[in-house]
Amino acid sequence: IWYIEHNSFPNFEPVLDISLHSKSKRTDFINLDVNTTGYVVSKKLKDALSKFNLPKHKFYKINVYHKKEILEYYWFYFVIDDFWEHLNTTKSFAEIVNADNLGIIEKTINIESKSQILKESQLYKFPYNCRTGKIVFKSNSPKYDFYKIQCLGYHKVFSDRLVNHLRQENITGLEFKRISFFEIEE
Known about the structure:
There is one protein chain. The protein is an alpha+beta fold. It is about 15% helix and about 35% strand. It contains 4 helices and 11 strands, in the order βββαββαββαβββαβ. It has helices spanning about 45-50, 85, 115-120, 160-170; strands spanning about 15-20, 30, 40, 55-65, 70-80, 95-100, 105-110, 130-135, 145-150, 155-160, 180-185. A 5-stranded mixed beta sheet has the order 1-4-5-3-2. It has a 4-stranded mixed beta sheet with strand order 7-6-8-11. Strand 4 and strand 5 form a beta hairpin. It is globular. It starts with 16 loop residues before the first strand and ends with a strand.
């Protein structure tokens, strides 16, 4: 997976082997800090996600070892290559916060483009941080049930519909919090 270019699917079958600690609990979602657009999911979570409107994606079978057993897991790899074209830049903004001052918002920045936000965030060093203020998608944007905000905190965003389904299915390993900084125009 280390050879996969950002925002594109590989032209090879990725190989990922994971060994869980013997005291770890089985869970449907395993958070690995290996790739910003991929997650390790159980077959149960894969089946649940497959019923919803997702961005371009593939599920690659992987090996997860736990207590001398091989568990059925998949690497859920997705490509969000249309984030910036669907963003309403007049209503979206980033915030500069001061970590030393209880996260007080020092200033807001209009979002014009990815390169502009990346340059802007590099101007601020600790204790200052650039984070998502508000992300507004245009009304004609895809109505995904799962999305990931890139470049401003890398937040995973689930639709209410998907969250309710995952709760009904007793999916483990995920904790959901309501967010107010993401919306799609009506």
